[in-house]
Amino acid sequence: MTACLTDPNILEALQRASADQLHLLKAPAETWQPADLTGELTGGSWQDAVLEIRREAEPLPADALACLAGSLITEEALPSYQAWLNRHLEFRDETGTDTTPWAQWTRAWSAEENRHGDVLNRYLYLSGRADMRAVELTIHHLIRNGFNLGSGSHVYKSIVYASFQERATRISHRNMGLLAHEHGAKKLGRICALIAGDEARHEQAYQNLFKVCLSADPDQAVTAMGEMLLSKIVMPARLMSDGTGRDLFSDYSILAQRLGIYTTRDYAETLLFLAETWGLAKLRGLSAEASAALEKIFKTAEKYQRKSAQIAEALGSVEVQAFSWIRPTPP
Ligand SMILES: [Fe+2]
Ligand SMILES: [Fe+2]
């Protein structure tokens, strides 16, 4: 799996494709900022801004808020993700201010992502429902612990993973927004919908970039997809910790599954969506290794789709300890 790292033609094609994706990122002045959604506290009616959030967050179940905290913690580990995207030796922002399209993309993407953690953090803080120190401690641990996908410095692996992950976060923010609306938390619903909108633009860009990998080097690209998105898939916040031995991420995943924020069915459907978007079923003349990977991709998606109800039922009875992030009842 080294050809793509040294083939300058493919790297050039990816730079050209990155240039074509830049329009999918918004200029700072044209997009939302956290303060647009959580309000300013400088005016005479600052109490109203705070009370509005506190009131709407009151009826939200503790489990839903724990899920929100888990998403926020994941978003706040952005330094790890930007470092990860910059790990390709021949395809990175070498100086920190490079003008190549990929370097511009990674910085502008990070700048958009940075608002996600900020706005969720502020909402949770103003809601009065969270133990913010416990949340901050988990963020601190997560960034210290890092994030290892096993993608090494392989460009195809990073791009295919980002294609998947942006869609997964889009789904989970969208579902969190719907859940918030169900409980009358309109502001939170709007915040989550706007974040999901950002993720939708991001997923489109990474999926377009992976199309370039597939058309230039289908064997290696399909193999990379099989390696990154099947049984060994590592989620960004896998190493979240509260400093004890508890497997926080596992508990958070169970909760997300239970509340319908992100489920096994979502995983299977994402795999099938990507296969369809990239026309994988129509690929011909693949190497034996790539053909085997392709077959496994479809089999895995079908297996998880078939078993999703069973998995949901089994996880429904698993006991999950309360999270230190959320106060069980409103103050
Ligand atoms: Fe995000
Ligand atoms: Fe994103």
Report on the architecture of this protein.
With 331 residues, the chain is an all-alpha fold. It has one domain (10-20, 46-235, 243-316): Ribonucleotide Reductase, subunit A. It is built from 14 helices and no strands. It binds fe (ii) ion (2 copies). Residues 75, 113, 116, 169, 199 line the site of one fe (ii) ion (FE2).
- Please write the CATH class name: Mainly Alpha
What is the fold-level CATH name, i.e. the topology? Answer: Ribonucleotide Reductase, subunit A
The total domain count is 1
Quote the average pLDDT. Answer: 93
Query: Can you tell me the CATH superfamily?
Result: Ribonucleotide Reductase, subunit A
Q: Rg, please?
A: 20 Å
The secondary-structure class comes to: mainly alpha
CATH-derived architecture: Orthogonal Bundle
Helix content: 55-70%
Runs in which pLDDT lies below 50 for 5 or more consecutive residues are: none
Question: How many strand elements?
Answer: 0
DSSP helical segment count? 14
Biggest pleated sheet: none
The proportion of strand residues reads under 5%
Order of helices and strands: HHHHHHHHHHHHHH
Tell me, briefly, the overall form.
Answer: globular
How far apart, in Å, are the first and last alpha carbons?
A: 55 Å
Q: What ligand molecules are bound, each kind once?
A: fe (ii) ion
Task: Record the SSE blueprint.
Blueprint: H1 3-6, H2 8-21, H3 34-38, H4 46-57, H5 62-76, H6 78-85, H7 101-127, H8 132-145, H9 155-182, H10 186-216, H11 218-229, H12 248-258, H13 264-277, H14 288-316
Helix pairs in contact: 2-10, 5-7, 5-8, 5-9, 5-12, 6-7, 7-10, 9-10, 9-11, 9-13, 10-11, 11-14, 13-14
Bound molecules: fe (ii) ion (2 copies).
